[in-house]
């Protein structure tokens, strides 16, 4: 099945694409728990080899409460992307409301040691009306 990337951001030659899906089978709506899975593809369109060093997420729930998540790499990895290469990973996000959003950035290190931030596009988390 071909994934449909709904959200895209381009920063300094790095494209970050996001596809997000609500997972009713992982959610416990009666307990106030909603769960989404998101697939990220990071594409290195620069002439330099890049390493993803850190992630910074801003997760906002339907009440406007913000949770900031920072850490090394993504899903336990700090992938190296050669020119023209891409890296895919899948992760999930639980919320205590049926709606919210995510956005953020990755910090990449170039082969010369300099670092820059690549934006992760804003994307909504929305459970279907029938799920609540």
Blueprint (SSEs and pairs):
Blueprint: E1 7-11, E2 14-22, E3 34-44, E4 50-61, E5 66-72, E6 80-81, E7 86-95, E8 99-110, E9 115-126
Antiparallel strand pairs: 1-2, 2-3, 3-7, 4-5, 4-6, 4-8, 8-9
User: Uncertain regions: pLDDT < 50 for 5+ in a row?
Assistant: none
Give the CATH architecture: Sandwich
List SSEs in N-to-C order: EEEEEEEEE
- Helical proportion, percent range: under 10%
Rg result: 16 Å
Coarse morphology: elongated
Q: How confident is the prediction overall: mean pLDDT?
A: 94
Tally of separate helices: 0
Organism: Novosphingobium mangrovi (ex Huang et al. 2023)
InterPro entries: ApaG-like, ApaG_domain, ApaG_sf, Uncharacterised_ApaG
Protein name: Protein ApaG
Could you please describe the fold and organization of this structure?
It comes from Novosphingobium mangrovi (ex Huang et al. 2023). With 132 residues, the chain is mainly beta. It has one domain (7-131): Immunoglobulin-like, CATH 2.60.40. The protein has no helices and nine strands. It has strands at residues 7-11, 14-22, 34-44, 50-61, 66-72, 80-81, 86-95, 99-110, 115-126. The protein is elongated. The two termini are 27 Å apart.
């Amino acid at each position: 099945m071909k994934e449909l990337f709904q959200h895209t951001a381009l920063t300094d030659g790095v494209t970050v694409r996001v596809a997000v899906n609500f997972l009713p089978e992982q959610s416990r709506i009666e307990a106030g728990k909603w769960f989404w899975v998101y697939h990220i593809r990071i594409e290195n369109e620069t002439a330099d080899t890049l390493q993803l060093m850190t992630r910074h997420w801003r997760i906002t729930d339907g009440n406007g409460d913000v949770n900031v998540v920072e850490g090394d790499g993504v899903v336990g990895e700090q992938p190296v992307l050669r020119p023209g290469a891409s890296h895919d990973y899948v992760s999930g996000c639980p919320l205590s409301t049926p709606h919210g959003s995510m956005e953020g950035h990755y910090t990449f290190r170039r082969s010369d040691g300099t670092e820059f931030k690549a934006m992760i596009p804003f994307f909504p988390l929305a459970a279907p009306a029938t799920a609540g």
